[in-house]
Fold this sequence. Notes:
CATH topology of the largest domain: Leucine-rich repeat, LRR (right-handed beta-alpha superhelix)
Order of helices and strands: EHHHHHEHEEHEHEHEHEHEHHHHH
Structural class: alpha/beta
Number of helices: 16
Number of strands: 9
CATH class of the largest domain: Alpha Beta
CATH superfamily of the largest domain: Ribonuclease Inhibitor
Amino acid sequence: MTLLTRTHYSAAASLIGCALLLHGASANANAAEARKLDLANDKAYEHVVKPILAATCTGCHGAKKDKGKIRLHNPEAIREADVIIEGLSADSEFSNRILLPADDEDVMPPEGKKQLTEEQKKLLNWWIDQGADFEKTVAELEAPEEIKVILTAVTVGGGVPEAPEIDLPPAASQAALDAISSSGVLIMQLAQDNTFLTANTVNVAKTFDDAGVKALIPVATQLAWLDVSKTQITDAGLADIAQLPNLTRLHLEKTAITDAGIPHIAKLGKLEYLNLYGTKVSDAGIAQLKELTNLKKLFVWQTGVTDKGAADLQSALPDCEINMGWKEPAKEPEQAATDEKVGLYPQLIAICKKDGCCGKAHAEGKKCDHGCCVKAFAANEVCLKCNPDSKDALAKLKESLKQ
């Protein structure tokens, strides 16, 4: 393969793929019963990364086949493939390939193969940015908020449930598809062998509003997945979303919707996945979802939903996994005591480039989550690859500490 130099691609590459779950590693009906990811004990590679690679990559790049002389089925093979740069997903050939637009001839997986979902791509790049470590647990890696949300949905073990037998709607008209695409909404066929559609507003999130939702009505029968997260839609826009009879997956995270709009969502009888993360929905709102018997996953992290409200809904929908968010694993006493110490971070961040990755993250009240920088700070160092101008200042800081 030729090493790609592009580090930024169209957001079209982030459009969700056709997999039904974050993990689709095994189609074995006799697989062990699925369980939630154990953040404290499960390893990031073994329990998060490896299943994704097994589901989408190792058929062509595995033990039995090495297309392009690349194998990705175990740590040794991944190291030998030399397509991952630890701590730098942006410079890794692997990441560049999976982020290419879907119609690019070099995209991986290629057209016709099982595609990575948006969440899977983010998890793989997160792992690479954290150093592509094969032994650390999930809790030992720093995870930004977006990754934490995704990790809380990861399951370990279990097979992929077979898609139910359903009647396919007639294909959407090309004129309707062209009109929606021209507005900036990413819309495509959910799978090659059916007429259902998936729509994503990631490219127009800052301008997509209730009027944009109304523009989707011409393909109402075909829409199965809809992602309007971080858009400007309001409760009024949900009235039009309620007219999508075959909708099974709906992303509403980080929007302005409230309890007032939930009755519209309650009309979506086929809904299986609903993400309300970061909205103003409360116990009163989710209580109106009790009739959605097909609902399997509900995300209510950083909302007004309480444990009691979630428990009440759970009693009505026992098969629904209600995700209340990231739970920090309990720390060992020694680790907790260490964390209480401020360390040298204030002095170290002060000598980092203000417009570099560390400086920008600090300005936003965060710590840089690049694997190389995380390792450097942990060792009371500054990553000189990201902050080359800090070399002299770092030397002076070390010298002053000796005095």
